Amino acid sequence: MSDVILALDTSSGTRTALVRDGRVLATRTQLDARAHAEHATPLVAEVLTEAGIAVGDLTGIVVGTGPAPFTGLRVGLATAQLLALAVDLPVWGVPSLDAWAAGAFAADPGLEEVLVATDARRREVYEARYVRDPGAPGGLRRVGDFAVHRPDPVAGPVPAVGTGTTLYPEAYPVVVAAVDLDPGRLADIGLARARAGEPVPLTPLYLRRPDVHGVPGGREPLAPTTPTPAAEER
Amino acid sequence: MAVSEPLVLGIESTCDETGVALVRGRELLADVTASSMDEHARFGGIVPEVASRAHLEALRPTITAALDAAGVTLADVDAVAVASGPGLVGSLTVGTAGAKALALGLGVPLYGVNHVIGHAAVDELVHGPFPERFLALVVSGGHSSLLLVNDVATDVVELGQTLDDAAGEAFDKVGRLLGLPYPGGPHVDRLARQGDPAAIAFPRGLSKGRELARHPYDFSFSGLKTAVARYLEGRADAGEEYSPADVAASFSEAVADVLVTKTLRACAEHDVRTLVIGGGFSANSRLRELAAERCAAAGVEVRIPPIRYCTDNGAMIAALGSALVRAGVAPSPLDLAVDSSMALSLVSVPA
């Protein structure tokens, strides 16, 4: 039986792909950074229609878990989870930054290490470092933890990808060219990990605590955010 | 055997409750609610991001629990209804995104419905079909609205709403002034029962002269809340004792008096003989007493659903969805947008 995987990512715009046995049958991207809830399900319906696949023919759903701005991120997760519930399918979570890294490794066969930096708003970036690892499902391995912080001017000579590299070019002098977040790669990584029995949690990678400012009558502030280990290293 | 009526699954996620219910016709099969209220209590108010995170965690398990409780499966569902406004954007977004995927996956129509009108619609599940026209007073921590309902699925006219604080919000604020725990509404209500409602003459907002003429059916509670604060400051400055129970009772009286007086005025002007009161604030004991007393005198029937259907829940959304299906209203498009300030005349998002 062939694998028919729907991938959905709402970490930067809304992106979806329909992948059968490693081949992308249809894909849609809507870069609108705000209206994820409007676009997600209609785009999924479009790729299904274009590929001539009924929703009942899907065998799995892969969803990007961020890190990303919260409201958009939740659209992808809610959409994927309830579509999976409706059709009784497995749903697997893959960090969105993993797909960026996979794109970089595919674009440059000589690349062994890559830094992914995406827009976290508030003049900050989400970051993670990856190495190529042919033995790992999906062909890559994350080194260290996810972090959110100001773009770091000493990010160093590690080639970088992601929306953060175009927003803060001074912080990322070496960039892997022509890489975009491809939901097809998200599908590949998710399927490979699920098959290998690796964890594919649906936990959203928020990285930041809820902002309690502006709550009417809010009195008790939250404890300051604990820096992630990756942030402490810097 | 008669063909059974359509089964509607309703999803509510406008504020801090994740509610899912199943309604067939006017029969409620199951109603399950998950609340993040305890997580907000320590901040003294609802933190939107905390609520949104809780919705995402609760959505799928709440749906599953509601299906189990109703003894049905998703394959039995004929339509999905979701509250797509008004409410908190982050909260609305989780439920609406999920509802769309559910509708696509099941191949059934989607209705993006108005949360406030849902507070009135739910009464049909309790007290049976609505009369030809009725007035709905929807009062909660987020809303204080007076609606003329000619048909709950197709024709709702907004007569008025609060210009500042909602009734429940004013109670929470006065609760804080009196040093009561959050949410203050129920605490103020309990305290008020021990006090004298005529002890302090607190103002009735938009109830006299030109203000009344300009805003016959609108409400304003922020001046009242300020009057309570001034009264308490005045006693403190003068080093005088005061009775918190009298303050709570006089304040409650002012809120209930304005709500009931304006509502009955609207009943008279529009020749309506039925009033439905919904929303979490309809649990307020003084509002219930005063509405029952004055409506009986005016010959207006009052319908108030039990409190579990007055707080935010999935049943109100499923009930309104069911009314829309019954009326043959076209479903909403899958690209519908959430609308945090959805107009109260909009029952559902049009195709």
UniProtKB/TrEMBL annotation, chain A:
GO terms for biological process: tRNA threonylcarbamoyladenosine modification. InterPro entries: ATPase_NBD, Gcp-like_dom, T6A_TsaB. Gene3D superfamilies: 3.30.420.40. Residues 209-234 are annotated as: Disordered. Residues 220-234 have a biased composition (Low complexity). Pfam families: TsaD. Residues 33-131 form the Gcp-like domain. GO terms for cellular component: cytosol. This is TsaB protein, required for threonylcarbamoyladenosine (T(6)A) formation in tRNA.
